[in-house]
Write a structure and sequence with these properties.
The chain is an alpha/beta fold. It has helices at residues 2-13, 50-53, 61-72, 110-127, 139-148, 178-181, and strands at residues 31-32, 38-42, 93-97, 133-137, 160-164, 168-173. It is built from six helices and six strands; from the N terminus they run H-E-E-H-H-E-H-E-H-E-E-H. Strand 5 (160-164) and strand 6 form a beta hairpin. The radius of gyration is 16 Å and the shape is globular.
């Protein structure tokens, strides 16, 4: 509930550069190919990205990074994502997050993760037959995926690759946030 209240408040106060835009400011749906081979899990919609545009990893620097990577690897039809109606189509990829609302200071509390995890469980179940690779972006996404999938004994670390049950592969990465990309912690 804290995250939803925060998302609505951000939608009212807005960032200066988006002052003339109507914010989505409610739980952000995930998107992609419902028969995806690749499942990408992030932290949450960005306050002035997905919370503004209504689509996760859209309209912010993390989304710019991810969508460009998806495009260069053949999973997206274009290298940018700026709005829900920009024509972006994902092929064999599905993008979701541990949370559906932007958390204050990008730090969700455990009850918010628990509440939203039911959506992630449903998506994993829907994709179970087609999904081959799970890419988790950041420690919260990693921990949440491992928890809801009952995967034990793995440790978070950038560029770790785990072969998990049913022939699936879990790839672990730092989140493509500005904190990680501008400092060089995560490079192209």
């Amino acid at each position: 509930m804290v995250n939803l209240i925060h998302s609505r408040e951000v939608g009212k106060t807005k960032a200066k550069k988006f002052a003339n835009q109507l914010y989505w400011a409610k739980p952000v749906p995930t998107f992609g190919d419902p028969r995806a081979k690749l499942l990408v899990i992030g932290l949450a919609p960005a306050a002035h990205g997905g919370n503004r545009t209504g689509r996760i990893f859209t309209g912010d620097s993390s989304g710019d990074w991810l969508v460009k990577a998806l495009f260069e690897t053949g999973f997206a039809n274009k290298p940018i994502s700026v709005s829900r109606d920009d024509g972006l189509i994902l092929k064999d990829a599905y993008v979701t997050a541990a949370l559906r609302c932007a958390p204050p200071h990008n730090k969700p509390n455990p009850s918010e993760i628990s509440n939203c995890s039911q959506y992630l469980i449903s998506e994993i179940n829907i994709l179970e037959k087609t999904m081959k690779v799970i890419l988790v972006l950041g420690k919260i996404a990693f921990d949440t995926y491992c928890n809801v999938s009952n995967v034990k004994g793995l440790r978070f670390g950038h560029n770790k690759i785990y072969h998990i049950r049913n022939g699936k592969t879990l790839i672990v990465s730092y989140h493509p946030s500005r904190r990680n990309t501008n400092t060089g912690k995560l490079t192209w």
